[in-house]
Amino acid sequence: MGLLEVDRLSVGIGRLTLLEEITFEVDRGEILGLVGESGSGKSLTALAIAGLLPLIGARVTAGAVRFDDTDLTRLDEYRLRKFRGRRIAFITQNPMTALDPLQPVGEQVDVVARLHLGLPADVARSRTIEILTQLRIPEAATIYRQYPHQLSGGMKQRVVIAMALAGEPDLIVADEPTTALDVTVQAQIIHLLTSLVRERGLALVLITHDMGVVAQCCDRVAVLYAGRLAEQQGVRSLFAAPAHPYTHALIDCIPKDGMARGSLTGIAGSVPSVAHFPSGCRFHPRCIGRQSVCEASVPAATALPGGAVACHFPLNGDARHG
Amino acid sequence: MTGAASSARPALRDNLFARAFRTKTGAIAGGWLVLLALAAIFAHLLTPYEYDIQQLSAAYSPPSLSHWLGTDEFGRDLLTRILYGARISLSVSVISIGLSVLAGMVLGAAAGYFGGRLDRMITTVIDLSWSFPEILVALILVAIIGPGVTGTMVAITVAYLAQFARLTRAQVMAIKSETFIEAASGLGASHRHILFRHLLPNAITPVLVSGMLATGDAIILEATLGFFGLGAQPPTPSWGAMMSSGTALLFKAPWIIIFPGLAAAITVVSINLFGDALIAGLDVRSRPRVE
Amino acid sequence: MATHDMADAANLLVIDRLTKRFDSGAGLFAPRRSMTAVRDVSLGVSRGSVVGVVGESGCGKSTLARLVLRLLEPTQGTVHFDGVDLGKLAPRDLRRARRRMQMVFQDPYSSLDPRFTIEQVVGEPFAVQGEALPPGRIAELLDQVGLAGEIARSYPHQLSGGQRQRVGVARALALRPDLLVLDEPTASLDVSIQAQIIKLLQDLKQDLGLTYLFISHDLGLVRYFCDRIIVMYLGAVVEELPSPSTEPRHPYTRALLDSTFSPDPGKRRHLASLTGEIPSAFNLPKGCAFAARCSRASSRCLSERPTLTTHASGHRAACFHPIVADEKEPS
Ligand SMILES: Nc1ncnc2c1ncn2[C@@H]1O[C@H](COP(=O)(O)OP(=O)(O)OP(=O)(O)O)[C@@H](O)[C@H]1O
Ligand SMILES: Nc1ncnc2c1ncn2[C@@H]1O[C@H](COP(=O)(O)OP(=O)(O)OP(=O)(O)O)[C@@H](O)[C@H]1O
Ligand code: SF4
Ligand SMILES: [Mg+2]
Ligand SMILES: [Mg+2]
Questions:
Q1: CATH superfamily of C11-19+36-261+281-317
Q2: Is B187's CB within 8 Å of C132's CB?
């Protein structure tokens, strides 16, 4: 039983269904990677978990988001707030805009602890400095007093993570926390985030489009394609033997050391937009293994050892290894 | 130039104006403007009266079947004079704003594109004139040039120039930093090519729309100058001058001031409404994607 | 410092000690500041090769690309293209020379005029060069980059990012150039599309015998695609690798390599975390620009600026304490 269970979750806007039957779970001390190309529905899933869908005019149309056995989709805004920020922290896709430009960054971290843990100002302050130090911010007491524009991108990102940690959450949902950062800084931040999760036994849903990041730090992976879950597995078996043709193709899109020139070919076609989702398996127009049934009917999720795959013709182990 | 780039601007006019006409307010307002323009052009065919023949016996007739909108203090048919007045009002404002847009775009584009000292020179002059209200600039100019149609036109052209120059400059500066401009120079494009094929076509739409809106203001400005006796000189009818002569007779023959005033008001409102419809249709990027 | 041999016929492009300084406008309250976006960069690109330029955001990669195509005037230094000094060309001749060297831009969204149809975009090079458009050439170009002919009449906003980037490539190919400068052509695209475009570029290079200067922030991609790699840090070249598999000597290249996430969960690395902040380009330290983040830095690094020194044929690095071949980087 996971700390967070997303169970056949569907999300819609107006008459459009943007997410369909998304299912996965995360437990304490575990990192789940949620991957997919742009527009596959990663951010929507994150918003759904945090109960923030109304912000963009969307709503949960079916399914449940169970956190510690409470179905968050059935809570009203008032009761949701007891979870959000306190037990579930959310790091948005563009963290640079998450900071108020007119307030010293340290105070912005304080606010979280004072609001959710009811700490007095001076205690909150020393706690903030402690967290910033843990995040390897040099001279945290000085940084505490600075304004966002005085900090580099990587530094701001660490402040945003500090805000997420300040409420002592059990679950962090991080939506592409390093996309805007340089590779060296990205490596630092990811490293930091994952070691925090391990040390404190938090659960982390790490949203990214970077299969490299997934391979290096996640325990399990859920692959989204066009609003549906293509595949979910443990990270090692997913990379060693992807069951879904999309996962397989996606892994093949990343240049690897010693790869021969010309072996990178990409996936033909492009990710469909919501208004033009293909019938049947949504991946079928781009899939090299498709048959006529793929166009006609939606593949149901079938169980794999430690996961599930939604494909009429999942790649079998031999072909996967060969 | 070869065929490829020479038809670079088709997306602009057909779309924008057609789309404005397709909205309800756009159709009503645009319809009024078209009707008025046609009536002004064919005024000599539409009415049996002359605008300048006095018939004192019929002076101060209220609206009737023979004089739909009544007559003025000299017995001239008011409807006839309003239609002929529309010729002056519309042509003066449209031509002057047209000239003003043209000159403003040249100055604004030159300043925005070439920058440097040229920009500083143009901007200084423009900002100076921008800091006075249009009416003041116009009054000073008419005072210098002398009253009459030419004076009015010069006054309106200059009074609004700053607005268009500033807008064009801002547009050009914004578009200049887009990558496709750099791409064009990377292909070996000349300044002329970049200005006329890329910058102006992309900058022109908002300027045209603001020109449209300014035409309404210009009608009022023209009427105001006419009201002070600085516009078209008698007996040439102008809405402003007609209203001016009507003020003294407000209680004796209220129609003399009411109808030219109404004509001006409806026209200005129509122009503004049509301008709004144009703005609403400005988003030319609303075509669907192809897969 | 080694200056490249101008007469070397194998080099299509020779950049010599190129420097670009930007002065930030002195405002009423702000003092005039100047920053060097590209400092003393020299490199040669031989015919038919792919040279990669890699570095983090703001290190001057795009500025270098613009200098190469003379879209920017260098503060110092020269660019020779096929033996001709571009700086000595009259504007007319420069415009003509541009047909042989073209650029593909980073952002496929703003690099196409929204009012042009695809046909007009791809035909523009001919219009600009005052040349008649050969019949069927547009269809041929679109076909070459893998686009359907029907697309010719659509507008850029009707296309996806990958399709637009293909249009950008078609435009660059229109006049049959010899050199393409590719400024992060896939940075804003999904990986599946990135791989498509890279494949396309590879095929085109083979078919048309093109030479590429390929700019990217992705060392993994550059190592896959390029023959030779230039690593830039804060405007200067810190290392030049003669082949993609050469072990780096410069600690910064090493850090870049260690920061790349390998898509293999079996090979998890303890990620080398660089500490320290990237210095401001307006206020570069006196010594090595990387010293503040470098684990090997000595007092000499803080006071003296290292220059590129040759370690092996074609392998140069600017570091006082380069990593030696059989040394394992401590983690
Ligand atoms: N407010 C909205 N109205 C309509 N459609 C929306 C809205 N928000 C998102 N969508 C659609 O839902 C789909 C999923 O969007 P989402 O933002 O979750 O993608 P993502 O996987 O996070 O992509 P990215 O990697 O670009 O952030 C997209 O196709 C998007 O167009
Ligand atoms: N026209 C300009 N005026 C002033 N400064 C500039 C100009 N162009 C670039 N710069 C500065 O020069 C530096 C290098 O910029 P450049 O665009 O070359 O970086 P880059 O390596 O291409 O980065 P990115 O990966 O973000 O594209 C930056 O600090 C930038 O702010
Ligand atoms: S269901 Fe068919 S089309 Fe979809 S991924 Fe599997 S094989 Fe390909
Ligand atoms: Mg997203
Ligand atoms: Mg760049």
A1: P-loop containing nucleotide triphosphate hydrolases (3.40.50.300)
A2: no
Beta-bridge mates of residue C211:
C179
User: What percent of chain B stands above pLDDT 70?
Assistant: 91
- Please give the backbone phi and psi of residue B55, each rounded to the nearest 5 degrees, phi first: -140, 85
- For ligand 2, the distance from its centroid to the CA atom of residue B115, given in whole angstroms, is 21
The pLDDT value recorded for residue B289 is 43
Contacts of C98 in chain B (CB under 8 A): 186-188
Using DSSP, state whether A229 is helix, strand or coil.
Answer: strand
Q: How far apart are CA C251 and CA B238, in angstroms?
A: 82
In terms of residues, how long is chain A? 322
pLDDT at B147: 85
**Hey, how many other C-beta atoms are within 10 angstroms of the C-beta on C125?**
30
Residue of C132, C155, C171 with shortest CB distance to B2:
C132
The answer to whether the CB of C100 falls within 8 A of the CB of B193 is no
For chain A, domain boundaries: 4-87+169-310
Query: Taking the alpha carbons of A141, A147, A151, A157 in that order, is the dihedral positive or negative?
Result: positive
Domains: count for chain B: 1
CA of A69 to the centre of ligand 2 (A): 51
CA-nearest residue of chain C to B7?
Answer: C120
Q: Does residue B117 form part of some domain?
A: yes
Q: Do the beta carbons of residue A154 and residue A181 sit within 8 Å? A: yes
Give the tokens for residue B235.
């007996």
B132 band by pLDDT with thresholds 50, 70 and 90: confident
Domain span at residue B108? Answer: 2-59+67-286
Nearest ligand 2 atom, CA C64: 18
Domain ranges of chain C: 11-19+36-261+281-317
Q: Does the residue B279 lie in any domain?
A: yes
Three-state SS string over C262-322 comes to: CCCHHHCCCCCCCCCCCCCCCCCCCCCCCHHHCCCCCHHHHHCCCCCEEEECCEEECCCCC
Strand order in the sheet with C315-317: C101-104, C179-183, C211-216, C50-54, C228-233, C236-241, C315-317, C309-312
Answer for the pair A173, A205: CB distance below 8 angstroms, yes or no: yes
Question: Is residue B186 included in any domain, yes or no?
Answer: yes
Distance of CA A290 from the midpoint of ligand 3 (Å)? 5
> By alpha-carbon position, which residue is closest to atom 4 of ligand 2?
C22
Regarding the domain delimited by A4-87+169-310, which CATH topology (the fold level of the hierarchy) does it fall under? Rossmann fold (3.40.50)
Rounded distance between C-alpha atoms, residue C211 and residue C70, angstroms: 18
Confirm if B221 and B207 have CB atoms less than 8 A apart. no
Confidence grade of residue C1 (pLDDT, cut at 50, 70, 90): very low
Task: With respect to residue B291, please indicate whether it lies within any of the assigned structural domains.
Answer: no
- Cβ neighbourhood burial of C47 (10 Å; 0-12, 13-18, 19+): middle
- Which residue positions in chain A have pLDDT lower than 50? 319-322
Q: Specify the residue with its C-alpha closest to ligand 3, atom 6.
A: A311
Of A71, A75, A82, A87, which Cα lies nearest the Cα of A9? A71
Which residues have CB under 8 Å from C277's CB, separation 6+?
A152, A155, C292, C293
Q: Cα dist. C34→A44, B246, C20, C71 in Å?
A: 44, 67, 10, 20
- Rounded to 10 degrees, the C-alpha dihedral B243/B249/B251/B255 comes to -50
What is the CATH number for B241? 1.10.3720.10
Contacts of residue C93, Cβ cutoff 8 Å, sequence gap at least 6: none
In contact, C288 and C294? CB cutoff 8 Å: yes
Element (H, E) at A101: none
CB-based contact B180 C112, cutoff 8 Å: yes
| Cβ C266 vs Cβ C288: under 8 Å | no
ipTM for the complex? 0.86
Contacts of B22 (CB under 8 A, 6+ apart): none
